């Protein structure tokens, strides 16, 4: 069985996706266990000496000035979980829940949170045995971390809430019993250690980044096919042009288009048919490249966050306990807003290329890519639907991170809205995926109207893959089923 070792330092995006989607199992690094045990000793010492330390022997938020007795420390942590579990909306997908559990376990394994090793092991056992808490998607301000959704994650650990186990929804207590995992009586600091962090926004956003990297590659394939279908000009992709601007994403995109179209006889030279192409063709490297650079920036920030301590308070190795603000989601909020904008632009330019494929006033192809126009509508309404999706994205791309609202009696007076930003970027990604699938399907349809030409090395492989899923549309048929086939196709990483 595939196994991922976590130590809070080196978790990768690829490992996260493997645990979330392929059910890889997780183990704590042996050296990390020593750090966890040492951190817990400090918490136990604080409780025994009756020191006043936030979140350990005090209440939370505005109640930080309320002293809690040693006898009530455990009850305080249980109350924290139950009172904070007040999420709303649909439950997060199982893959996101698994990513959340992994990220929280990874952060706790760094040894700055004061959790007991046995409690952390319970969370990992749940992940490995497939006990997936039901976590509502809404209710987090993104500071102090993702309190409400993470509280739902913890409920089954203490025998409460609901969970999914082997595909069935049931009580958290029943799921734990069926999986053979003992529930936990939380000790001092443990409830706070489990829920005070940015793992929900980071889990949603990290999977989005992973998928965005793949989708940006597919957008290049769709663009190359459209370029050939419209007999576009290859001179605009001459690397000498892009090297003198020096943006990495732009250079990478130009190289990919040239590689995909290598050997093509569809592609034309400058002045052969036209002097210049429209921007949606000519500026593919500049637009796709800018989105690639943005995605890579967000990836860098996400990987940092995946291996960070986002607790409050933080237990340092020398015994110092510091109340800071590492739970604040602003680094992720800004990144996920940026991700949504970058994805929106991939959709915007794809929809414009789609318009050039279906609009006979802009090409020399049959109107709406159908043989018997009038009786058949062909691809006419696919462009409508794509236009609706990209217009919706313009609304969704409005940044969540510029908003804030005070909470906890104004003690927590600036929040990130990072979880909303992450969720919005997911919606944008799904919309863009459908738009690019539509462009792919339309480009292949357009190519079939041209005879006597040869596709490029890469575009031929892409064309064959699409045609294995959907046929040339000779007469009108129910389009959403065909579009879904191509959407599912590009969701598969093998594409």
UniProtKB/TrEMBL annotation:
<dbReference type="GO" id="GO:0019557">
    <property type="term" value="P:L-histidine catabolic process to glutamate and formate"/>
</dbReference>
<protein>
    <recommendedName>
        <fullName>Histidine ammonia-lyase</fullName>
        <ecNumber>4.3.1.3</ecNumber>
    </recommendedName>
</protein>
<dbReference type="InterPro" id="IPR005921">
    <property type="entry name" value="HutH"/>
</dbReference>
<dbReference type="InterPro" id="IPR001106">
    <property type="entry name" value="Aromatic_Lyase"/>
</dbReference>
<comment type="pathway">
    <text>Amino-acid degradation; L-histidine degradation into L-glutamate; N-formimidoyl-L-glutamate from L-histidine: step 1/3.</text>
</comment>
<dbReference type="InterPro" id="IPR022313">
    <property type="entry name" value="Phe/His_NH3-lyase_AS"/>
</dbReference>
<dbReference type="Pfam" id="PF00221">
    <property type="entry name" value="Lyase_aromatic"/>
</dbReference>
<dbReference type="GO" id="GO:0019556">
    <property type="term" value="P:L-histidine catabolic process to glutamate and formamide"/>
</dbReference>
<dbReference type="InterPro" id="IPR008948">
    <property type="entry name" value="L-Aspartase-like"/>
</dbReference>
<comment type="similarity">
    <text>Belongs to the PAL/histidase family.</text>
</comment>
<dbReference type="GO" id="GO:0004397">
    <property type="term" value="F:histidine ammonia-lyase activity"/>
</dbReference>
<feature type="modified residue" description="2,3-didehydroalanine (Ser)">
    <location>
        <position position="144"/>
    </location>
</feature>
<feature type="cross-link" description="5-imidazolinone (Ala-Gly)">
    <location>
        <begin position="143"/>
        <end position="145"/>
    </location>
</feature>
<keyword id="KW-0963">Cytoplasm</keyword>
<keyword id="KW-0369">Histidine metabolism</keyword>
<keyword id="KW-0456">Lyase</keyword>
<dbReference type="InterPro" id="IPR024083">
    <property type="entry name" value="Fumarase/histidase_N"/>
</dbReference>
<dbReference type="GO" id="GO:0005737">
    <property type="term" value="C:cytoplasm"/>
</dbReference>
């Amino acid at each position: 069985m595939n196994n991922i070792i976590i130590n809070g330092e080196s978790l990768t995006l690829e490992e996260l996706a493997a645990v979330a989607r392929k059910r890889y199992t997780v183990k704590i690094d042996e050296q990390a266990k020593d750090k966890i045990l040492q951190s817990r000793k400090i918490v136990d010492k604080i409780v025994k000496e009756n020191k006043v330390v936030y979140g350990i022997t005090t209440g939370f938020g505005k109640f930080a000035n309320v002293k809690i007795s040693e006898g009530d420390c455990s009850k305080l942590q249980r109350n924290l979980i139950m009172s904070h579990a007040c999420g709303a909306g649909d439950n997060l997908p199982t893959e996101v829940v698994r990513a959340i559990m992994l990220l929280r376990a990874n952060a706790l394994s760094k040894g700055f949170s004061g959790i007991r090793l046995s409690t952390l092991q319970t969370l990992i056992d749940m992940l490995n045995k497939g006990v997936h808490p039901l976590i509502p998607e809404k209710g987090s301000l993104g500071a102090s971390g993702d309190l409400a959704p993470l509280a739902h994650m913890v409920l089954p650990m203490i025998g409460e809430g609901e969970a999914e186990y082997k595909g069935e929804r049931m009580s958290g207590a029943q799921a734990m019993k069926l999986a053979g995992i003992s529930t936990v009586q939380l000790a001092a600091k443990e409830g706070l250690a489990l829920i005070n962090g940015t793992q929900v926004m980071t889990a949603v956003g990290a999977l989005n980044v992973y998928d965005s990297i793949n989708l940006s590659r597919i957008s290049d394939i769709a663009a190359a096919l459209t370029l050939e279908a419209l007999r576009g000009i290859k001179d605009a992709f001459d690397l000498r042009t892009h090297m003198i601007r020096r943006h990495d994403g732009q250079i990478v995109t130009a190289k990919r288009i040239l590689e995909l179209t290598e050997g093509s006889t569809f592609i034309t030279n400058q002045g052969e048919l036209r002097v210049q192409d429209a921007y949606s063709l000519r500026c593919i490297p500049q637009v796709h490249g800018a989105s690639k650079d943005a995605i890579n920036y967000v990836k860098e920030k996400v990987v940092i966050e995946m291996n960070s301590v986002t607790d409050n308070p933080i237990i340092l190795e020398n015994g110092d306990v510091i109340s800071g603000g590492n739970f604040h989601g602003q680094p992720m909020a800004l990144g996920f807003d940026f991700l949504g904008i970058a994805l929106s632009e991939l959709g915007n330019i794809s929809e414009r290329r789609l318009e050039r494929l279906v609009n006979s006033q802009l090409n020399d192809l049959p109107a709406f890519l159908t043989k018997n126009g009038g009786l058949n509508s062909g691809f006419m309404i696919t462009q409508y639907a794509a236009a609706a999706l990209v217009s919706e994205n313009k609304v969704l791309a409005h940044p969540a991170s510029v908003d804030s609202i005070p909470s906890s009696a104004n003690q927590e007076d600036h929040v990130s809205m990072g979880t909303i930003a992450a969720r919005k970027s997911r919606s944008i990604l799904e919309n863009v995926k459908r738009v690019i699938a539509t462009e792919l399907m339309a480009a292949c349809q357009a190519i079939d109207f041209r005879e006597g030409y040869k596709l490029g090395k890469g575009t031929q492989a892409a064309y064959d893959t699409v045609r294995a899923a959907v046929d040339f549309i000779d007469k009108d048929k129910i389009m959403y089923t065909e579009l879904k086939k191509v959407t599912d196709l590009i969701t598969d990483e093998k594409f």
